[in-house]
Specification:
By secondary structure, this protein is an alpha+beta fold. It is 20% helix and 26% strand. The protein has a 5-stranded mixed β-sheet, with no helix packed on it. The radius of gyration is 25 Å and the shape is globular.
Length: 293
């Protein structure tokens, strides 16, 4: 009986020793499989923004940066965080540990960056003309053919693409909300502040320019979304200090009280609204992060 117990104890010690060695080997070996952390190409959330290909960036030097715990745009880039956010077409709420963003090798290269032309011939003869480039995920506001400002945008994702073509703004609604979609917590209808309707499809679905989250890639159900951190703070309590207010800027420029009568905040039909041109196709999503030297 004692001999059997000794054999059992001996085997148990050997098993425990072998298991410890195996675990130690795995701990030592696994991190060496990847030299630099990066988002997985198989990730369904598509969190690696360095894989989103924009034609305007082909001649610019940039590198991919993996966001580590405790890192934010502000902690990484200081006051230049605004330019990096715009460069990536992303808002601060969507920058989180585990994702990858594009970072310019020279920050001066992206200050006042725009992929749209400073002069646009089709916009000549129009007091106000809005150009949306789906491929670049960018919007430009033109006055008589000259670009007066431009901002990142989030258009329809694959399967719910934004319609392309020539349209015009036919309604405004400063406090609009979605009739179809709710916020992530499912507590209220999704806010669409500073909304401007530019198209009604054959299925009677309306398409709007409006405030929304920008995750750095096409993400909507067909509408065109712009930065509005005041809306995000009101609905999601983040960020604490709203800075990016592009939807408000475009709304005031296109259909504000200088152009039309007093804005009551209710849905109002408009006549002779600015032209809206939507062009291009969805940006290509690379299989993996590009290797840049």
């Amino acid at each position: 009986m004692r001999y059997s117990q000794m054999r059992f104890t001996h085997k148990l010690v050997l098993i425990l020793l072998f298991t410890s060695l195996l675990i130690g080997f795995m701990v030592l070996r696994v991190p060496t499989l990847i030299a630099e952390p990066e988002a997985s190409p198989q990730d369904k959330a598509q969190e690696d923004l360095s894989r989103v290909e924009y034609p305007s960036l082909k001649t610019m030097k940039w590198h991919a940066h993996f966001i580590k715990p405790s890192e934010t745009l502000e902690s990484l880039f200081g006051e230049d965080w605004v330019w990096v956010a715009r460069f990536n077409r992303i808002d601060r709420r969507h920058v989180y540990p585990g994702m990858t963003i594009k970072v310019p090798d020279n920050m001066a290269d992206i200050r006042d960056y725009t992929p749209l032309p400073q002069e646009y011939e089709p916009a000549r003869g129009h007091d106000k003309y809005i150009l949306v480039d789906v491929t670049e995920q960018w919007l430009g506001a033109y006055e008589n053919g000259t670009l007066v400002f431009s901002v990142p945008a989030a258009t329809g994702k694959p399967g719910t693409e934004t319609p392309t073509g020539m349209f015009s703004i036919t309604a405004r609604h400063k406090t609009h909300t979605s009739s179809l979609y709710k916020t992530a917590n499912d507590e209220e209808q999704y806010p669409m502040d500073n909304a401007m309707r530019f198209n009604i499809g054959p299925d009677s679905v309306s398409y709007w320019l409006h405030a929304r989250d920008l995750p750095g890639r096409p993400a909507s159900h067909g509408c065109i979304g712009l930065y509005d951190e005041e809306m995000q703070k009101r609905v999601f309590n983040s960020p604490e200090n709203p800075v990016l207010l592009d939807s408000e800027k475009l709304y005031e420029w296109a259909v504000g009280e200088k152009e039309y009568d007093n804005d009551t905040g209710n849905l109002e039909e408009l006549e002779d609204g600015p032209v809206v041109e939507v062009r291009g196709a969805l940006p290509r999503y690379l299989d993996r992060s590009p290797v840049r030297k």
